[in-house]
Amino acid sequence: MAYPTIDGPYGLRPVNLIGGQVFAGATRQRRIYSSSASSIGFGDPVKFDSNGCIVVCTETTAAPTTGFAGVFMGCTFVSSVTGQPTFSQAWIANTSVASNTNIIAYVCEDPDQLFQVCGVSGTTVVSTTSGFTYTDIGLNVSMVANTLNTTTKDSRYAVDIASGATTQTLPLRVIDVVPDTAFTYSGTIYYPEIIVKFNAAYVVQATGVVTGGHAYNNPVGL
Fold first, then answer.
1. Is the pTM of this model over 0.85?
2. Domain ranges of the chain
3. Mean pLDDT by 10 residues, the chain (222 residues)
4. What dihedral do alpha carbons 36, 39, 73, 68 form, nearest 10°?
């Protein structure tokens, strides 16, 4: 049987929740600061800034200190050119918006949310000779922070296929593999896609400070 192939990373796609709970598409509205210099693609992980707004998460081998805010699912704003509401799959940095209006982002924020994500062997390279295996389930992995696809406005975030470890500081936990795109190479079955969740917050032993995880589960304030 021929399985579909993955031509590149696509960010974090919400699937269901832990325990088999249904994902009903719920999001929370968050603001993007009007002078934000970073673009955010559909499927990019995001965090809070000091203004209480969201920005793209650039951390790869650890979660943001105060935790993830969730995953970006699009935004709306009033264009300064047309004066009309604009709905966009991505927020493009330095987009001109009407004065005294807000940029509203839609964020998939449930701490129990599971995401499907693609593994890469380089920045955006999906390996045809390696990938995840069943032994990676339960391990933690690092992210690869690629810039968004400016044509589709989708995220190109991925996970590093060689990063699986028990290291508590890594930002994502491997929950399962995706069998639909599995392939066999030299007698080994590899899975280019996996199911992940945000890793739990942890305590830095030397300081007693809680760090990482999801912002809702992290007692450290902004």
1. yes
2. 26-108, 112-217
3. 78 96 96 89 96 95 92 97 95 93 97 97 95 97 97 97 95 97 97 95 61 75 63
4. -70
